[in-house]
Design goal:
The protein has about 190 residues and is an alpha+beta fold. The protein has one domain: tt1808, chain A (Alpha-Beta Complex). About 25% of the residues lie in helices and about 25% in strands. The strands form three sheets. A six-stranded mixed sheet has the order 3-4-5-6-7-8, sandwiched between helices. A two-stranded antiparallel sheet has the order 1-2. It has a two-stranded antiparallel sheet with strand order 9-10.
């Protein structure tokens, strides 16, 4: 999860962030760069991990040919952001992105419980990067938030879907996923 427990006060670029990573500035810490700010991510609790598993399994079933589901892997978005969304459907690269992280995605999914505020904040970065399909598995309210139609750093469309409803990813409009399959089952 991407709870901003600590952050730097100065803004930085992806290039400077990469140098800090290579220099070992964040060894033993999970961090991500969002809008020029380095956020420390909190450890995953069991509910977040269950949500991540549920959503991953559902997305792997409908992943378009030539694409793959990345789990908590960096995306290079703009000059000042390198977020690590919980799930990203990205083009398959024969070199496994050895030359650099993906710069776009067909779909991004954040699984949010205590990280909900931070994950919603990342929507601006995703919209600025032109990510047309961004979902939040909101574990607090047990719903799926769907953000589409990015324009000028905001999403013009926001839908809230509940259990019992279905959603079709923009990358696979002929296929639908049950919201129940994206959210973890509760005991």
């Amino acid at each position: 999860m991407a709870l901003p427990e600590t952050r730097t006060d100065r803004r930085t670029t992806r290039e400077a962030y990469a140098r800090m990573v290579e220099a070992g500035a964040f060894v033993g810490r999970r961090v991500e760069l969002v809008g020029g700010i380095v956020y420390e991510m909190s450890p995953q609790d069991h509910l977040h991990a269950a949500g991540l598993r549920s959503a991953r399994w559902a997305l792997e079933e409908i992943c378009p040919e030539g694409y793959q589901v990345d789990v908590q892997m960096p995306l290079s978005l703009g000059l000042d952001s390198e977020p690590e969304p919980d799930l990203a459907i990205v083009r398959r690269d024969p070199l496994n992105y050895v030359g650099g992280h993906p710069t776009s995605a067909a779909l991004l999914v954040e699984v949010a419980d205590s990280s909900l505020h931070h994950d919603r904040r990342k929507a601006e970065v995703y919209a600025l990067a032109g990510i047309g399909d961004f979902w939040i598995c909101n574990l607090v309210r047990d719903v799926l938030e769907v953000y589409r139609a990015p324009e000028d750093g905001t999403y013009r469309t926001r839908l809230v879907l509940r259990r019992g409803e279905r959603i079709s990813p923009l990358a696979r409009p002929g296929v639908s996923i049950a919201v129940d399959d994206l959210l973890p089952r509760k005991p």
